Amino acid sequence: MSTMLDIVGALLLFGILIVTIARVQSNLNEASFQNSFSVITQGNATELARQVEYDFTKIGFRVPVKRILHADTNLIEFRSDLLNNGIIDTIKYSTGTVSEATITANPFDFPLKRRSRTGVLTQQRSLRRFHLRYFDFNHSRIGTPITHIDSLAKIYAINVFFTVEGRETARGGDTTYYAVFWQKLIYPRNLSN
User: Fold this and answer.
1) I need a labelling partner for 133 at 20 to 30 A (CA). Which of 65, 145, 162, 173 fits?
2) What is the C-alpha separation between 48 and 163, in angstroms, rounded?
3) Closest by alpha carbon to 75, among 149, 132, 157?
């Protein structure tokens, strides 16, 4: 009888040990999954930030007049010799609609469009928010939309804020997405003169 109790006790302990190991493995898998999506979201935000910062710092490069053509909270159109090849190009950043973000499962994201003479680049980076604010030389905010030539010429700095969310939820069936916020006040060198 005591042998039977020992076997039942050992089986019970073995079962508890197996369940514990399975739970630890499940937690490790979930943490790895969450870490992967977090890294992907951070990478998307970093790539977008580099592109926006590169383009915006060169606004007006080798352009004597009409450097910025239109400025609004989610749209900017400017001229620049981005490639330093003597060809002045018109670059326009604008946001798309939620229905244009077809490759992501996130129902709230939208693409960012970058139009230049080489074509339109529609970026599906799970953008959730893209907001621009404009400041003059005295760091006073300029109201938007800015369409008048004199007001456009007063732009001295641009505050860029965007949110990139993950393409998939943090957990299956959840509605929480990983998010990365980026904000920077950019001073295009060619707008100061």
Assistant:
1) 65
2) 10
3) 132
User: Could you tell me which residues are beta bridge partners of residue 179?
Assistant: 165
H or E segment to which residue 146 belongs: none
Tokens representing 42 are: 């951070």
Q: Alpha-carbon distance 106 to 103, whole Å?
A: 9
Cβ neighbour number for residue 141 with a 10 Å cutoff? 11
C-alpha to C-alpha distance for 30 and 171, rounded to whole angstroms? 8
- Rounded CA gap, 17 and 174, in Å? 30
Closest CA to 179 of 61, 54, 81, 40: 40
Q: Where are the alpha helices (DSSP H) in the chain?
A: 2-57, 149-153
- Spell out the residues 6+ positions from residue 155 whose beta carbon is closer than 8 angstroms to its own: 68, 71, 134, 135, 136, 142, 146, 191
Q: Within 13 Å of residue 78, how many CA atoms lie on the same side as its CB?
A: 28
